[in-house]
Design brief:
Elements: H1 6-16, H2 19-33, H3 35-43, E1 45-48, E2 55-57, H4 118-127, H5 129-149, H6 154-164, E3 171-172, H7 173-187, H8 194-203, E4 207-210, E5 216-219, H9 221-233
Antiparallel strand pairs: 1-2, 3-5, 4-5
Helix pairs in contact: 5-9, 6-7
Length: 243
């Protein structure tokens, strides 16, 4: 059995794990792993220089905005509770008739255990349910509005402004096509279809599509809230969005 030359072995390992060989391995792995994304990026390069200079790429043609989810339902559905026969159910705000002592303090979930203000906040919510829902709705509207605002195009905001002037009435797709044509003119993107352009607003919850012989669109309550939000938060910038 031959002896291992540890000095030579360490030298070999040092060479294998030195930066140039590892760079080749990492590069090959990245190319294999992200081949589709790299191909897409290379196809969208419009200008740039190698070796330290900036490279500019156009946005994807088919979905330049990505997608934005509609706001969550404010109150999720709760399955109806049916009490077993013969078992009484005490109302939330009324103590049970046969209850000799006040109920024990309910345990807090792990997220609130170390919060010294948690029980006071829970008590406030119980005493002020309507106001709590109002404040929660404001926060959720702001969050959803910010998510939409960073992706929406200027011409799509114009679509919302026009729909809001109809006071909830539907507008046919041909009547809205002028906004999409203006987007195409400004962006030079002829591959982003009118359907995808409007589906972005539908998916974000700002517009509702009315199925008919000729598709129609109308504003949703969130669309109205979104316009009010960006007008208040961005008094000038909301009218200056690109495309």
């Amino acid at each position: 059995m031959c002896a291992v030359n540890w000095t030579m072995l360490l030298e070999y390992l040092k060479v294998v794990f030195s930066w140039p060989p590892m760079a080749v391995v990492i590069t090959l792995f990245a190319v294999f792993k992200f081949k589709a994304a790299i191909d897409d990026l290379l196809s969208r390069i419009v200008s740039g220089k190698i070796l330290g200079q900036e490279i500019h790429a156009a946005p994807p043609k088919d979905a330049p905005q990505g997608s934005v989810n509609a706001p969550d339902v404010l109150v999720p559905p709760v399955p109806d509770f049916v009490a077993p026969v013969g078992v009484g159910v005490a109302l939330r705000d009324e103590p049970a008739v046969n209850e000799p002592h006040p109920p024990a303090e309910e345990p807090l979930p792990p997220e609130l255990v170390n919060d010294p203000h948690a029980r006071a906040a829970i008590a406030y919510v119980r005493e002020n349910p309507a106001q709590t829902v109002i404040e929660y709705k404001k926060v959720m509207t702001a969050l959803s509005s910010e998510r939409l605002y960073v992706r929406i195009f200027g011409t799509q905001i114009s679509v919302l402004v026009f729909l809001s002037s109809r006071n909830g009435g539907p507008v046919s797709a041909p009547a809205l096509s002028a906004y999409h044509e203006e987007y195409q003119r400004l962006s030079d993107n002829m591959e982003y279809s009118f359907e995808s352009y409007m589906d972005f607003l539908v998916g974000a919850g700002a517009v509702e599509k009315v199925e008919a012989a000729v598709p129609q669109y109308r504003m949703t309550p969130f669309g109205v809230e979104f316009l009010a939000y960006i007008r208040a938060q961005y008094p000038i910038a909301w009218m200056q969005r690109a495309f």
